[in-house]
Each structure stands twice: as C-alpha cells, then as structure tokens.
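Follow-up to my earlier ticket, as requested here are the two runs.
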Amino acid sequence: MGKPTILVVDDESHIVELVKFNLEKEGYHVITAENGKEAAEMAKMKKPDLIILDVMLPEMDGYEVCRIIQKDSEISDTPIIMLTAKCEEIDKVLGLEIGADDYVTKPFSPRELLARVKARLRRAAKQKPETDDGKGIIRMDGLVIDPERFEVQLAGTRLDLTPKEFELIRFLAKSPGRVLTRDFLLENIWGYEYIGDTRTVDVHIRHLRQKIESDPANPIYIETVRGIGYKFKEKR
C-alpha cells in the first residue's frame, strides 16, 4: 500500500510550506494548489486520500470547491478538512453542511492539524464499505447492494425497490457515516427541477426504511441528521 496522498489548498505560500513540511515528515505524499479552480481540477485528476482546504481562495472559494467535490461520485467520499481564519459558528456550520468533515481555524497548531489528518484517514479506512473487486458491490451488515444489477438484498432476500429508492441507498451506503444533505440528494438523484422540494427526499427515505428496517420508527441503517439530511450507519 502506497503513502496516502493529501491535497493542501491555500493561497498563502508560507501556510502551504508549513503544512507540507509537517505532513511529509510523517510520510505522507503531498500535492498542493493555490486557488479554488486548480484545487477542484487536482482533486478530480489526482483523487487524493484527503484534502486540507482553505475557505478564502482566489477564483473560487473553498465552499464552492467542496460543493463540486460532493457532486462528483468518484471523489465525493474524500475527507475534507476546512482550514480558515474564520471562526464564526455560522461559517463552521456551512462548511460541515456542504460536505466538509472537519474544521480548523488559523492560527493553528501543526500538531493538532496532523492529529486530525490521522484521525480522518483512519476513520475513512474503517468506514469504507466492503466491495467485490471490480464489481462495485457494497456489503454492509446483511445488506448487499449491486449497482450493475440494480439489486439490493437483505439477509439473502431480494428487496423490491423503486429506481429512486435504489439510488438513495446506493448514495448513502457508499459513504457510511457521512451526512448527505437533502439538497445534495435532490440534485444528484432527481435533478435540478426538484431543488427546494426536500419533502421528496423525506418521503422516499420513509418508504425505503419500511423496506430495509425491522423497526422503521427506530432505524438502524439510515439515520436522520436533524435539519441537514441523512447518513448511512457507520461500520463498527
């Protein structure tokens, strides 16, 4: 297994060099970007194992970069640590709601940042669902999701899911423990014409729970994150 690759994005060169030095000292492979557009392109091209992303960037801010990454199914599960001088609670909430996994404010301790990087990489490795080589089949505690056959089985029994229900469980299950907002699910499953109608997601989640949960009122697989969206159960 090769060294984890970390993309560091900041328009302040001394910050980039500080973070890069400390990460490389720990054995990580580091790539860098100095603006939002370059960051989005590198994330798609290099597919790093983790991204350290500043909010205030030229050309495109970190929030927009985060949104772009969330829309790309190939990299949407990449852990993101937001790095910024902003410390208002609203900024932190916004970052987390659009897909960031953690938030560190400047000035920061390199040791603290390194600890958060290690924790996020460990968590990402632990939460990665089991898949069959080359087939993309997801297995998680009795559930088997087969994207090629558009088929879901629970404890060996095939479930009768609608196409939208299948897409919902597939999106959620491929990133266990990660919160997906209602707007993200609407945009990626239903399309732009449904944006704003979050009731659509809630109704389909309710129907899906009735099919996969032994007690839909106390769900095990799909958890509600109040005011934000939903997440699939974390692997224990």
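Run two:
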Amino acid sequence: MSDLAERVRAIGEQVDAGYDARRTEAALAGLTTKLRRRGKRRIALGSAAAMLCVLAVGFWALRSRHETRPQPPLARPEALFTLDDGSVVTPLDPTSRLLAKSVSPRLVALDLVSGSAHFNVAPNREREFRVSAGRVEVVVIGTKFSVARQGGRTAVAVEAGQVRVEWERGQQLLHPGERGSFPPFETAGPAAPAAEPEAPTVEPPAASARTGSDWRVLAEHGEAAAAYRRLHDKAKPVAPANLDDLLLAADVARTSGHAADSARYLERALALHRNDARAAVVAFTLGRVRLADLDDPAGAAAAFAQARAAAPQGPLAEDALAREVEARYRSGDRAGARALAEEYVKTWPSGTRLRAVRHFGGLP
C-alpha cells in the first residue's frame, strides 16, 4: 500500500472511530482505483508531451538542416549549339534563340533569331561557318566573337581570329578587338532617323608599311582597296587561278566597291572548278552579288539555279530556291517565280523562307 493510502487510513481513524475495517478497506480500494486511473492519465499525458517534444525537435532539426544545407552552384547556361570539333555557341541573355539551318562538313549555317550569343568556332579551312542575324551575315574561319541583335541592326565584336560581316550593300572585315554595328548608316543621302542610335565606328587596324606586300597579305589585314589595286596593277596584273585565291579576290573586289569584278572572279571560279565541293557556295555567292550589288535579278536567278544544280540535296538548296523565286519575281518573270514557289512549298512545306516565297511567287 502506498504512503498516500496509509495517510488516508490514519486520517479516517482519527475522524470517525466507528468507521469499521470493511468500510475502510472498501473506501481505500475505491481511492486506489482512482489514483491508478489518475496515474495512467498522467503517464499518457506525459508520453504525449514527450512525443510532441520529440516531433518538435525533429522538425526543427530537419528545418535547420534544410536551411543550412549548401546550395549547389548556379549552372552555366546551356549551349545553344555544339559541334564535335569543340565549337560551341552559348547564350548571353535569356531571349537568345538560335536556329541551325544547315550543318555539314562543308557548311554550317546558323540563324540568331533573337537575343545575343557568344561563338567559339574551331578553325577548319574545309568548312564555311556562317551566322545570320537580321540583315547581316557573319562569315567565320576560326575565331571567338559575339553577335547581338539590336532592333534592325546587329552588333559584332571579335575577340580572336577574323570574321567578315556582310550586308545588302557591302561587307567589312573585323580583326581581334574590333567591333561595330551593321548595316552601317550611309554617309550620303538623308540623315538617319532620330530614333536610331548612332552607329559605333569600327576601329581601323593598326597602320603598317605593307605597301610592298602581296595582295593576299593586304586582304587578310583588311586593306581591301590596296589589295584590289595590287590585283589590277597595270604593270603587273594578277590573274588568280586556284579556288581559294579566286574567292579571296572576289571578296576584295566587292569590299572595295567593285562588284562587277567580284562577279567576274566568281564566274571564273565556277568555270575552272565546277566539280569542286564548294561550287554550290560559289554560285550562291554569285547570285547574291548579282541581286544585291549589280541589280541584275535575271543573272542572279541563273546563279541561284546553278547553285541548286551543283548540290540538289545540299545545305544551300532550300535558300537557293527561295532566292531564285525572289530573283525571278524582280526580273519580271512572274510565271517562273510562281512555278518555283510551288516547288518550294511542295518540297519544304514548313521551310524557313516560306512566307517570302509565297509573297514573291504570288501564292495565297
């Protein structure tokens, strides 16, 4: 019997001496039962409280561990485009979108649809690497550079190597450390709209005494005018014959403002190297020169047709057909433009030039 029960027994004897043993034992039994019930409730309440404490401690421990767990470092932007040779294009802002128009051992053609991107292109003399951005195209050999769409214009900055930026009425070589916005504003004619920002000027290459250099050296250093003069020196004219020299000469002539000579170099390249794997590229370039620089849409249409014939399944076939539709339309051959437009829609029903083809071909 517990101490509390003994005290109750003693008090009962003092208060009521006539309280007999049987009644006392009955009362004690009832009291003991109550005490046991109260003890069980205390134990249950104590266990519940202990359990709540354990849960609370566990909760705060988990929360503390979650809050103090080191967060993983921010992931680098996922590449927009990669090649097995290590070439990679990474976005420079969240709006960057890149479209791969064609990828082959001879030609990689990408379209920066929006935003800006950094290009790290592995050198490859057997491959042409072109990046379209609005109204300009950037032609790459092997370099690091950045391209950013800025409304109707495109900013290009070169870190290493060399690129050629082309637009409707000209082109510009950029060397390491040079940058510019293209197409540049025309220096003659009406002033540029006030809404357009002033174009950053392209920093000219460092002056050097290359007056006696070969025309190729002059061309590689961006001195197109001097290279053209050396090519057409009356005392010692140069007649390039291999394909690389002819393409470089065409580039020099066009850059220095002699589009007709550029076309002649390209025609010579096609005549001498019609079986070369780059024949389609040469013909396509000739078509662009005739259409944009010489205002000869009929000649351009013939050149684009030649580009398609040189590589019917090649990476330039779709663009060549689309440009031929435009050239035929501009030459007044509406029936020919429509027929070619129907061919384009049938062959490339979801082609990237579909809207322009329907417009120039007169299709609904």
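The only thing I checked on run two: Residues 1-5, 7-36, 38-75, 186-209 have pLDDT under 50 and may be disordered. Let me know what else you need.
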